[in-house]
């Protein structure tokens, strides 16, 4: 299984392409090993070239990565998925990094639709994963006035694994301050929820800190421990998000300058979907949350959203080639397997995700669970969001629009990331420099400060 818990869900919920597979190294030593940055440069050049299929069978890959490639139509199939980012206008030299003991080669690629880093994860010389990450080709410093707040390293302990890198952004001046924990959408994600050069969670942290609110954000468990979690067949949203969210609230409450009675939880996209379950868990925890924010959350099932989004994305194409139609048909056929969840065994996966994850989501009645939230809830929706749409917002309105503890706001002209854009742009809306809209930050700040 990929280190991403939900490869296809990441496209639906956060537009991050994830193509990661980490498992035991393959035994075919006669194949070439990935040993240095020059090897990574050579591999990526061929991968993004005219004949990526030439890479098949040449380089050593882990058994799980080989399976992933085979299910995707070989290396060429993986390359076609990356092609959604547009033409590679600039490919910068690879550089070596490290992620929890695994060697990682970063290759900054300025694609025409969205600049990203392509990351080759390597285990004992074998390619164990290929994924996208935040573009590092034009790194920039914080764009906000850092005199207004301090950024403090605060890592989140994860039982049996270690810890997750985190940052507490706290206003300067007299506290204690209200605080909010930020939770990303699906797929491996860093603490900024980086998508190309966009960093929505950094925008929120700096904007809210400028309004007197502390913000805690941390790398997702699947971002840091993807390889360790890859072999777990019983993983669910509990492991991916919920447990860490509850522990983050407990950790935050003990920090100097934080008002432990005024801690909020904000989830974006799939992180927003998790909020009702998190609220239930926090009611039984030593430190409670005093309110919740859900950004671009959907009350509908994930496979329904996936079908709807793919229909929309394909509708933007001037014409659909036979190859593209075949890819779409194959994806929908894969999702059809979810119609009979009882027939799936523990080791079975659908769209790259083990059956246990789908079964957990199927049993999770988000509306029924949300009904039990008694604390204030702020639900936000971008009207130009084609990933989670105004159809979802209407369902929330019908269910909770009359409840006194719920407030709902939609924003004309804002996308899934709550940045300016239009539906018809598709992923191209994420290719230009932008920040989370100031209206969103002020509405969130007003909601938090009112409690």
Any descriptors?
451 residues, 2 domains, eight-stranded mixed sheet, disordered N terminus, Rossmann fold, six-stranded antiparallel sheet, 22% strand, alpha/beta
Describe the protein's architecture and organization.
- The relative contact order is 0.13.
- It is built from 16 helices and 18 strands.
- A hairpin with a 3-residue loop joins β8 and β9 (162-164).
- It has helices spanning 7-13, 37-47, 63-71, 74-82, 200-209, 221-224, 226-229, 237-253, 270-273, 275-283, 302-315, 322-336, 355-363, 366-370, 390-400, 438-449; strands at residues 18-19, 88-91, 95-99, 102-111, 115-123, 126-133, 149-153, 156-158, 162-164, 166-171, 177-183, 214-218, 258-268, 291-295, 349-350, 353-354, 377-382, 406-411.
Please outline the helices and strands.
Elements: H1 7-13, E1 18-19, H2 37-47, H3 63-71, H4 74-82, E2 88-91, E3 95-99, E4 102-111, E5 115-123, E6 126-133, E7 149-153, E8 156-158, E9 162-164, E10 166-171, E11 177-183, H5 200-209, E12 214-218, H6 221-224, H7 226-229, H8 237-253, E13 258-268, H9 270-273, H10 275-283, E14 291-295, H11 302-315, H12 322-336, E15 349-350, E16 353-354, H13 355-363, H14 366-370, E17 377-382, H15 390-400, E18 406-411, H16 438-449
Parallel strand pairs: 11-12, 11-13, 13-14, 14-17, 17-18
Antiparallel strand pairs: 1-6, 2-4, 3-4, 4-5, 5-6, 7-10, 8-9, 10-12, 15-16
């Amino acid at each position: 299984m990929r280190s991403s818990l939900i490869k296809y869900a990441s496209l639906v919920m956060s537009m991050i392409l994830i193509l990661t597979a980490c498992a035991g190294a393959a035994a075919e030593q006669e194949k070439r090993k990935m040993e240095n940055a020059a090897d990574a440069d050579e591999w990526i050049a061929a991968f993004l070239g005219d004949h990526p299929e030439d890479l098949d069978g040449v380089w050593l890959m882990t058994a799980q990565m080989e399976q992933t490639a085979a299910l995707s139509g070989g290396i060429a199939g993986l390359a076609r998925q990356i092609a959604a980012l547009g033409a590679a206008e600039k490919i910068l030299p690879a550089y070596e990094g490290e992620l929890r003991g695994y060697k990682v080669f970063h290759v900054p690629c300025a694609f025409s639709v969205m600049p990203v880093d392509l990351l080759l994860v390597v285990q004992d010389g074998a390619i164990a994963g290929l994924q996208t990450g935040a573009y590092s080709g034009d790194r920039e410093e914080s764009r906000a006035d850092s005199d207004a707040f301090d950024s403090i390293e605060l890592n989140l302990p994860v039982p049996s694994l270690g810890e997750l890198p985190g940052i507490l952004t706290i206003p300067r001046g007299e506290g204690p301050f209200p605080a909010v924990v930020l939770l990303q959408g699906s797929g491996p994600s860093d603490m900024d929820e980086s998508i190309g050069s966009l960093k929505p969670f950094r925008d929120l942290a700096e904007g809210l800190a400028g309004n007197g609110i502390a913000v805690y954000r941390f790398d997702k468990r699947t971002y840091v421990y993807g390889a360790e979690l890859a072999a777990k067949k019983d993983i669910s949203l509990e492991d991916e998000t919920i447990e860490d969210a509850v522990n983050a609230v407990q950790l935050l409450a003990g920090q100097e300058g934080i008002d432990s009675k005024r801690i909020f939880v904000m989830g974006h996209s799939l992180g927003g979907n998790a909020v009702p379950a998190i609220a239930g868990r926090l009611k039984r925890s030593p430190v409670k949350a005093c309110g919740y924010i859900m950004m671009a959350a959907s009350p509908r099932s994930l496979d329904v959203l996936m079908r709807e989004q793919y229909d929309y994305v394909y509708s933007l194409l001037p014409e659909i080639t036979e190859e593209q139609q075949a890819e779409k048909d194959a994806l929908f056929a894969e999702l059809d397997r979810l119609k009979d969840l009882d027939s799936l065994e523990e080791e079975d996966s659908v769209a790259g995700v083990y059956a246990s994850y789908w079964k957990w989501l199927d049993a999770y009645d988000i509306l029924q669970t949300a009904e039990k939230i008694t604390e204030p809830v702020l639900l936000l929706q971008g009207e130009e969001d084609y990933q989670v749409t105004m159809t979802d917002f209407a369902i929330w309105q019908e269910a909770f629009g009359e409840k006194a503890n719920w407030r709902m706001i939609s924003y004309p002209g804002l996308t899934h990331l709550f940045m300016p854009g239009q539906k018809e742009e598709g992923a191209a809306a994420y290719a230009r420099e932008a920040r989370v809209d100031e209206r969103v930050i002020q509405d969130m700040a007003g909601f938090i400060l009112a409690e």
